[in-house]
Amino acid sequence: MITNTYSNTVGGTVLNVGLAPVVIRVLLIRNTTAATAYLQMFPTPAADVTLGTTVARDVIPIPASGGVSIDVPGGWKYPNNALSIACTTTRTGSTAAICDIWMLYGG
Is the pTM of this model over 0.70? Predict the structure, then answer.
C-alpha cells in the first residue's frame, strides 16, 4: 500500500526518507549536474551514516543531466528501521552531486 511520497533535492548530506520499514514502489531521479551522479541508499538513519565510509546497500548511477525512472510493482524493501539517501559524484564517495528525487513508498 502506498501511503507516503518523498520529494526533495538531495546532495552530499545524508537525508532520511523514513525512520521505519520502507517499501519503495516508484522512484524518479533527475541528475542536475553535467557528470554522472550516484544515489546512495542506506538501510539506517542518516545520523548513523558517514558518507565515504558507510557502505550503501544500493547505489543507482544517474547519467549526466539525465534521469532514471524505476517502477517496482512488488516493492523494493528496506525492512530495517530506516531508509536514508545521498547523491554523490562517485559510487562510494562523499562529494555532493545534486539530484532531484521523487518517491512513492509505503511501510
Answer: yes
Query: Among residues 81, 99, 62, 73, which one has the least CA distance to residue 18?
Result: 81
Quote the strand ranges of the chain, DSSP E: 4-10, 15-18, 22-31, 37-42, 58-62, 67-78, 83-88, 99-106
Strand pairing report for 58-62 and 37-42:
antiparallel
CATH 2.60.120 correct for 4-102:
yes
From CA 85, how far away is CA 45, in angstroms rounded? 9
**Dist CA 72 CA 79 (whole Å):** 15
Q: Residue 50 contacts by C-beta under 8 Å, 6 or more apart in sequence?
A: none
The parts of the chain modelled with pLDDT lower than 70 are 1-2
> Would you list the domain boundaries of the chain?
4-102
Q: Is 103 in contact with 39 (CB distance < 8 Å)?
A: no
**Which phi and psi (to 5°) does residue 47 adopt?**
-65, -20
Contact 62, 37 (CB under 8 A): yes
